[in-house]
Amino acid sequence: MDVYSTLTRSKETFVTINKNRVNLFVCGPTVYDDAHIGHGRTYISFDTIKRYLEYSGYAVFYIQNITDIDDKIINRSKESGIPAHDIARKFEKRYIEDMTKLNVTGVNLFARATDHVDEIIDQIQRLLDKGFAYETEDGVYFEIEKFPEFGKLSNRNIEELESHRDLAETTKKNPQDFALWKKREGVDEPVWPSPWGDGRPGWHIEDTAITEYYFGPQYDAHGGGLDLIFPHHEAEITQMEAVSGKAPMVKFWLHTGFLNVNGEKMSKSLNNFITIRDLLEDYDADTFRFFVLSTHYRSPIDFSKDSLHQSQKSLEKIKKFYTALDVEVSEVESNNEALKAAKEEFFASMDDDFNTPKAIAAIFVLINACKNQELSENDKIAIKSFLDDVSLILGIDFNIVEVSSGSDELLDVILNVRQELRSAKQYDLSDKIRDNLNELGYEIND
Ligand code: AMP
């Protein structure tokens, strides 16, 4: 398998530190508002990458941090009068609900920054002890000049950073030094005690404290959107490699392209966003996943309702083909040439830096080829079995679930009746309802 790493700007054979294990970290959200579909794009991409790695035989441990302390959360708290902690917990919960709806279920551990303040303080202390950091009256800073390799991920040098001068930050030795710890600024913000007084962590240090704690100083793959390469990921490398003396911190740096609207990145600040919740009012999650995966994860996607509609139609084609196969999957032999070619193309594409659009194209070639031939029962079974694997990898259900208006209410009625039957210990009937609903494609978790 070849995977592109931003660090080397090339595709490299995917070799992990421990043979079949992948330790993967992806920057999670800052939880101050609902996630938009740009976030959805990034997390669907990494979810699919994890699915494919697992399909290929790797045991993947996937951690995502939750930035639950940050200026944006504090500002929201000041505007609304709601404690920062409550804002963070509310939007963390809603984020995980949104991800579940998108079938983004691969994260093994969500690690909150505020649950790792001890590790953060410990890492900052070691950076101070080693002379990479210094304390001022308003915080603790990393001294960039002490780490000459700064810039190796983003290909920027220290001089270029002068343009990022933040005039408000006057206590730093150099404008490009970045905060590891921010001392208390006002009375109405959350703070934690530290050797440098009450305060809160800088943004970059939370990730390296978390990954060092769970993975150690070196691990396999780190992901995030393109906008995080600089300064965030650059700062992560700087902190971790300085403190451990080991490089590279991570060999495979994976970055997703933006989901754009009219050529501009979808973002809260540009106010051009659609929340995942709003989108899922009108479109199903399968359609959005299919839309996202029809573009390579590193390329930009131009979002429009028209192109989403197009994706819906294309996915319907696959769903109809899959449903029409109408066979039970079992172990069979099939020498169908079109299937063989499709499998080869699909897996070769996925092995080539997770090229989902090429892999999806192979499915359409298969569908078209099947139109012109009489398929044997075994062919149908083998094709269905292959499409089941594709469905697992892409995280898209190919079964058609007919949803008619009012079906949610109807489902509620059925589930309530079932609950009453369970309370009355009439398990035969309640299990029967569960099984029937399962057959219709609904999964019931008690
Ligand atoms: P944030 O909460 O803004 O830090 O973003 C969380 C993740 O979503 C980061 O990896 C971002 O790069 C990514 N992200 C934010 N906006 C977009 C977008 N429009 N397209 C793709 N990824 C995005």
Radius of gyration: 25 Å
**First-to-last CA distance:** 40 Å
Biggest sheet overview: 5 strands, parallel
The percentage helix is 40-55%
Strand fraction equals 5-15%
CATH superfamily of the largest domain: HUPs
CATH class of the largest domain: Alpha Beta
The coarse silhouette is: globular
Present as ligands are:
adenosine monophosphate
Oligomer category: single chain
Helix-strand string: EEEHEHHEHEEEEHEHEEEHHEHHHHHH
Read across the widest sheet, the strand sequence of neighbours is 5-4-3-10-11
What attributes does this structure have?
446 residues, alpha/beta, Rossmann fold, Isoleucyl-tRNA Synthetase, Domain 1, 3 domains, 5-stranded parallel β-sheet, 4-stranded antiparallel β-sheet, 14 helices, 46% helix, 14% strand, globular, binds adenosine monophosphate
